[in-house]
Amino acid sequence: MRLCGAGLGKSDNKPTITKTDEKKKIGDWNCFKMMVEQTGSINIKASLWLSEDIEIGFDVYLDLIRKLGMEKVLGGLAGVLDSIKGFPVLVETTQTQFEQTVSSTSLLKKVAKGPVDPALFKLPASYKLIEAGPLLQMQK
């Protein structure tokens, strides 16, 4: 599989999670900070500001990561993340692989319960369906 060939999901990736004493209010939520690090083929450093004020837990966030297919990218880190409590309000991540570094930040702005507008899932008119067959052949 191509992901493994790029060093993603390898077993030499060693994850650690550390809860810090840092706390701060972000938006409407009281948050605490956890540091997540993974070293190996892929080096990941992330600061997670989590809140238990939000009625949904980290398991919902992990489920989204898995549905997006990002679990392979996280390697051994995915299994360790199951122990985190609270929901991510601010996530700052730096990932280094093959001497390239990518940084990302995500900030939760709003949590709302209610129906989701089906138009959010409507494909744009310019969307074109292509068969995966030729793409899969390119991987061989």
Strand order of the largest sheet: 1-2-3-4-5
**Morphology call:** globular
Instruction: Calculate Rg over CA atoms.
Output: 18 Å
| Total discrete domains | 1
Reported for the largest beta sheet, the result is: 5 strands, antiparallel
Determine the strand fraction and express it as a percent band: 35-45%
Q: Summarize model confidence as the mean pLDDT.
A: 80
Descriptive notes:
The protein is α+β, with helices and mostly antiparallel strands. The chain has one domain (2-115). The chain has 5 helices and 5 strands; from the N terminus they run H-E-E-E-H-H-H-E-E-H. The chain has a 5-stranded antiparallel sheet with strand order 1-2-3-4-5, covered by helices on one side. Strand 4 and strand 5 (100-107) form a beta hairpin. The longest helix has 10 residues, at 58-67. It is globular, with a radius of gyration of 18 Å. Mean pLDDT is 80; it is low at 1-9.
